[in-house]
Amino acid sequence: MTRERLYIYDTTLRDGQQTQGVQFSTPEKHQIAQTLDKLGVDYIEGGWPGANPTDSEFFDEVPQTRARLTAFGMTKRAGRSAENDDVLAAVMNAGTRSVCLVGKTHDFHVETALGITLTENTDNVARSVEHIVGQDREALFDAEHFFDGYKSNPDYALEVVKAAHRAGARWVVLCDTNGGTLPHDIHEITKAVIEAGIPGDHLGIHTHNDTENAVAGSLAAIDAGARQVQGTLNGLGERCGNANLTALIPTLLLKEPYASQFETGITLEALQGLTQASRQLDDILNRVPLRQAAYVGASAFAHKAGLHASAILKDPTTYEHIDPECVGNARIIPMSNQAGQSNLRRRLAEAGLEVDRDNPALPRILEAIKQREAKGYTYDSAQASFELLARGELGVLPEFFEVKRYKVTVERRKNKYNKMISLSEAVVVVKVDGEKKLSVSESMDEAGSDRGPVNALAKALAKDLGRYQDQIADMRLVDFKVRITQGGTEAVTRVIIDSEDGQGRRWSTVGVSPNIVDASFEALLDAINWKLLRGDG
Amino acid sequence: MTRERLYIYDTTLRDGQQTQGVQFSTPEKHQIAQTLDKLGVDYIEGGWPGANPTDSEFFDEVPQTRARLTAFGMTKRAGRSAENDDVLAAVMNAGTRSVCLVGKTHDFHVETALGITLTENTDNVARSVEHIVGQDREALFDAEHFFDGYKSNPDYALEVVKAAHRAGARWVVLCDTNGGTLPHDIHEITKAVIEAGIPGDHLGIHTHNDTENAVAGSLAAIDAGARQVQGTLNGLGERCGNANLTALIPTLLLKEPYASQFETGITLEALQGLTQASRQLDDILNRVPLRQAAYVGASAFAHKAGLHASAILKDPTTYEHIDPECVGNARIIPMSNQAGQSNLRRRLAEAGLEVDRDNPALPRILEAIKQREAKGYTYDSAQASFELLARGELGVLPEFFEVKRYKVTVERRKNKYNKMISLSEAVVVVKVDGEKKLSVSESMDEAGSDRGPVNALAKALAKDLGRYQDQIADMRLVDFKVRITQGGTEAVTRVIIDSEDGQGRRWSTVGVSPNIVDASFEALLDAINWKLLRGDG
Question: What are the tens digits of pLDDT across the range A223-242?
Answer without folding.
Answer: 999 999 999 999 999 999 99
